[in-house]
Structures are given as structure tokens and as C-alpha cells.
Amino acid sequence: AVICCIGKIDDASKAITMQIKKENSTLYLLGERKNELGGSEYYRLLGELGANVPKENFEEVTKQIYVLVEAAAAGLINAAHDISDGGMAVTIAEMCIGGRGEGQIGAIIDLSKIPAFKLRPDQKLFSQTGGFVIEVSDENQKKFLPLCQKYDLKPYEIGKTSSSPKIIIKNKYTNQYYKFTL
């Protein structure tokens, strides 16, 4: 697991926080979702025992970190947050709410865009597999995507940010919608 990353930033105003900054930006997932819910809070709440704890892929994590560092330095991303305790669902909620609860920008997520077709929707949302969700403004798409290619990293476009302070999670394969108000 990624415990922490330490580095020096010369200009603190360029630091990337987890809070979503702009409506109508694209949200990307870095890192596939896997059936790795063993030890998850989600399974604990359901009274289930998960057998599959996350298995770290150091090569993949290295690519993700390099993309994040370069993209942040170039001003290509607005927000970024690691996927950890609670999985992608909690990550997105924390990004919308913001670090101090001042967030007012929501998100519309499409689970069918997450390439883990054998996983149930709840497994996609709460998988403990590492990775990141990042916000990229439309004007930065043409620079961000080649940066991912440079490191042979596949970013998955999973949704957009919204002016409405709600999180909407949809799955076109099942016609299910989940709505949460911030």
C-alpha cells in the first residue's frame, strides 16, 4: 500500500487538494477496480468476511505517482484523491464535500465506464484496490492524456463534475441510479 509520499513543493499555491474545484470537469480513475474488498469497511458493515485483500502492483503505482506529480507541476489537474478506506465511493464523496466540508460541486459518475465488467456495482464502488480519482478541466485534456500515454497509464473517464451539490452514480447496464445530496 502507498503509506505516504513526501516531497518539496516550491510554490504552495500549486498544491493539489482533494476538493473538486470546477463544474463540468472530467473525473478520471487511475487504477482498475478489482474484487479486493477483503478487510473493507463495507463488508464489515454487511457482516461479510472478504477473502480478497488488495495486492499492490508497484509498477502501476509508480506510473500513477509519476503522472500525478508531472500533471500537478504542469497545472493540469484541479483535484486528486487516493482511493483507500471506503473505496471509490468514499473517495468521490470526500472530493465533493471537500477537506473542511465547504464543497458545493457535485459529481455524476457512470459505473459502466469502469472496466471491471465482472464486478457488481457495489464491488466497483467499495473495492479497496488502490488508485486515484482526479479532476481535469476540459482545457487541459489535450495535455493530460498524452502525459498518461508517456507512462503507459490508462486513465478511465468515469464522469463529470456538476453544479448541483449532489453525487449521482448511475449504471447504464442496470438502469440503476443512486443520488446523494451534499
How is this structure best described in words?
There is one protein chain. The protein has 182 residues and is α+β, with helices and mostly antiparallel strands. It contains five helices and seven strands. The chain has a seven-stranded mixed sheet with strand order 2-4-1-5-3-6-7. A hairpin with a 4-residue loop joins strand 6 and strand 7.
Task: List the main descriptive attributes of the protein structure presented here.
5 helices, 182 residues, globular, alpha+beta, 21% strand
Low-pLDDT stretches are none
Order of helices and strands: EHHEHEHEHEEE
Taken as a percent bin, the fraction of beta residues is 15-25%
Total helical elements: 5
Separation, N- and C-terminal Cα atoms: 29 Å
Average pLDDT rating? 88
Give the radius of gyration. Answer: 16 Å
Shape: globular
Number of strands: 7
Q: Which strand order spans the largest sheet, edge to edge or round the barrel?
A: 2-4-1-5-3-6-7
Global structural class: alpha+beta
Relative helix content: 25-40%
- What composes the largest sheet? 7 strands, mixed
Note the topology.
Blueprint lengths: L25 E5 L10 H6 L11 H16 L5 E4 L4 H11 L8 E5 L10 H6 L5 E5 L4 H10 L4 E8 L3 E6 L4 E6 L1
Parallel strand pairs: 3-6
Antiparallel strand pairs: 1-4, 1-5, 2-4, 3-5, 6-7
Short recap of the structure:
The chain is of the alpha+beta class. It has helices at residues 41-46, 58-73, 87-97, 121-126, 141-150; strands at residues 26-30, 79-82, 106-110, 132-136, 155-162, 166-171, 176-181.
